[in-house]
Each structure stands twice: as structure tokens, then as C-alpha cells.
Amino acid sequence: MPTGVAIRDVREQLFDAAERVLLRDGPSALTSRAVTTEAGCAKGVLHRHFDDFDGFLAEFVLDRAGRMAPQAFALLEAAGTGTVAGNLTDALTDLFDSVAVAIVPLIIFRDELRARLRRTWPSGIPLLAEAAAMIGSYLTAERALGRLTPDADVETLAPTLIGATHHLFADRTGTPPQRETVVRTVNAIIAKTLP
């Protein structure tokens, strides 16, 4: 791209390019050159908008974590409808069919990225922590509606559901799990909390 040509929504264009590279080629292929090539812009564009590549990646991760709000709202709205296991299965499948499953190894892979994220996100992995909060809010609503037992330990159930489901989806190069596998996992985890 010639110098001096304005690019609209540079951050979003670069974030979308990073997501495509990450999903297609994995975390080890995510470099500043790969991102700018995918975005169709000069490498200097990234460095004009971000301090360095780890700064770019930290903002990318936080941006993607922030995009979970509509999914969290939809799941909360589903409380009291369908089945608890069905609603959880849909939400967890949507979550791990997304870029979230690829971001987790990226964060684990890059020490400086983890350090940057700790400045604004003191514990946990941002996408997984947001997902646990989303699941926790939903389970709390279902408990209030009497669709979970009054003693259902939502604070333990939410991260357990996230961890178990992430394990099912963790191999990004393999075949995603069948819905029945996710349903069986969810049911095994919540079985004792159903009235």
C-alpha cells in the first residue's frame, strides 16, 4: 500500500486480520508481518498505532473479550426457556467455535502478552474469565428461577463448564466435538444441581 493512503478503521482492520491469521495458521504464525500482510497494509501501519506487537496483541485480546457482551445478554435472556443443558451447550459451543479457543494458547505462548494483560486484567485469561462470568450469571438466573437447586455452587460450576468444554475444543486442527459430546459433558457437570 502506498505511503500516505488513509486506511479506515485501522485498528479494526488489523484486529480482524490478526483473527484470520490466528484461526487459519495458529498462534505461532501470528507476527506483525503476517497481520499487516493479511490486512493489506504496510508493516509500519501497525507500529504507528501501537507501541509494539505485544501491545497490539493485548489490545486485540481485550477487544475480543469485550465482544462477548451480546452473547452474554442472549444467554441471560434464555434463562427459564429451553433446558439448562441445552442453553449452556449452545453458549459454550458458540464460544469455542469462535476465536476464543485460539486466543488461549496465544496468551499462554507469549510471556510479554500475559504481562501486558495483567496490567488491566489481574487474573485469569480474559476471554475465559469473561466466559465464566457469562456462564455464572446465567446459572445464577436459573437458580433464582428454581431450575437449579438452591445450593448450586455457581462459582464452581461456571469455570468447571468452561474448562471441560475448552478441553473438548482445544485441538483447533482436529474435528470439533459433536453436539452430543458437549451435551453429555454439560449434563455430567450440572446433574447434581438439577432439581
From TrEMBL:
Pfam families assigned: TetR_N
Keywords of this entry: DNA-binding, Transcription, Transcription regulation
Gene Ontology molecular function terms on file: DNA-binding transcription factor activity; transcription cis-regulatory region binding
DNA-binding region: 31-50
Source organism, top-level taxon: Bacteria
Every HTH tetR-type domain range: 8-68
Official protein name in the record: AcrR family transcriptional regulator
